[in-house]
Amino acid sequence: MNEEPILTSPAKVLSARGNHAAEEARNLPRIRNLIAVGSGKGGVGKTWFSITLSQALALTGDRVLLVDGDLGLANVDVQLAMGPERDLASVVTGRVKLADAITPFDGGAGAMDSEISANAGRQLRGFDVLAGRSGSGTLDGMNRKQIALLCTELCKLSVLYDHVIVDLAAGMNTHMMPIFQQIGRVLIVVTDDPTSITDAYAFLKSLVTRFPNIDIDIVVNRAESDKAAEKTYGAVKRASEHFLQFCPQLLGAIHNDKSVASAIRAQAPLLTRHPQSVAADNVRKIAASLRPKSPRGLI
Ligand SMILES: Nc1ncnc2c1ncn2[C@@H]1O[C@H](COP(=O)(O)OP(=O)(O)OP(=O)(O)O)[C@@H](O)[C@H]1O
Ligand SMILES: [Mg+2]
To answer: CA-CA distance, 55 to 65, in Å (whole number)?
Structure first.
């Protein structure tokens, strides 16, 4: 990108209201082990990656909470074929406390056929899920006060886990400002689609300018090869270095792999359904590189 990409989408341009929310959130502490998975463009694989990363970390023995933070179109529960009775919607309406809305996920159908059974004698290593909704409507209508309450509760919960992974909606939602203020690290998922690259830069710019202390890494998804992934990362990195004087790191690359769609169709996580696939291997590598960097506690 020779010229700075024009940020046209309202979702990507921060409004005065967003500024205000960020201001309000400034006093909240950042939670080291709270990792958000975001993107500029939608449909790049955030939800699938959040689930697979959670499972990869859990299989190493870490305690993981996966939060469906896509408040408008929550679908972690769909990809995992879960029918949670309690969810973030029931928390927001005051029916249950955040801690009581957690649903354990044990690896899903077919877990015993996978690498998990190869670890005979060891426990099935699942993770906990905070689902977005269970047919009780979307969470789009949450106000800032409700979001702030969720953040406080999430902060308390995070000490019980090694990693809290939050699957975000695409782009920068001004409602989510308090959450960004608390996030320790953001993984930006990008594909080689030029609009995905441009939008990843726009998202990155929003983060860097609003939250200068946040750790930001790039994950290239659906790459045709490692070389192609480097090229995609290079495009984001060059624009960021040139216009923002900020160099995001490449955390890892995930290849385009038909096993991913197959696992999603079966509503089973990839490491359960196709543990030997290339994409599974790619995500395990990313999880391994992430592990030592997620100490618990506040920053
Ligand atoms: N590595 C991959 N290889 C092949 N297909 C993939 C890969 N990653 C994701 N996909 C495909 O991309 C689709 C979209 O994935 P997903 O729903 O996780 O995206 P998303 O970024 O969460 O979307 P949204 O922005 O709508 O929340 C999946 O249904 C899957 O088929
Ligand atoms: Mg999603």
So the answer is: 10
The reply to whether ligand 1 has any atom less than 6 angstroms from the CB of 274 is no
Q: What percent of the chain has pLDDT over 70?
A: 77
- Give the number of the atom of ligand 1 that is nearest the alpha carbon of residue 73: 27
- Ligand located closest to 44 CA: 1
Distance from Cα 94 to the centre of ligand 1, integer Å: 32
Q: Residue of the nearest CA to atom 12 in ligand 1?
A: 45
Domains and their CATH numbers in the chain:
33-293 (3.40.50.300)
Residue pLDDT, tens place only, 153-162: 888 888 899 9
* Residue pLDDT, tens place only, 86-110: 888 778 777 788 888 898 998 654 4
Q: Can you give the pTM of this predicted structure?
A: 0.86
Query: Is there a contact between 192 and 225 (Cβ–Cβ < 8 Å)?
Result: no
Which residues are bridge partners to 185 per DSSP? Answer: 35, 215
Query: Do the Cβ atoms of 256 and 223 come closer than 8 Å?
Result: yes
pLDDT score of 225: 97
Q: Which two tokens stand for residue 247?
A: 């160099």
Please state, in angstroms and rounded to a whole number, the distance separating the CA atoms of residues 161 and 52. 17
Q: Which of 117, 113, 128 is nearest to 62 (CA)?
A: 128
Q: Which residue's CA lies nearest to atom 30 of ligand 1?
A: 261
Please indicate whether residue 46, judged by its CB atom, sits closer than 6 Å to ligand 1.
yes
Distance 79 CA to ligand 2 centre (A): 10
- Closest atom of ligand 1 to 223 CA is 1
What does the DSSP assignment read for 123-140? PP--EEEE-S-SSS--ST
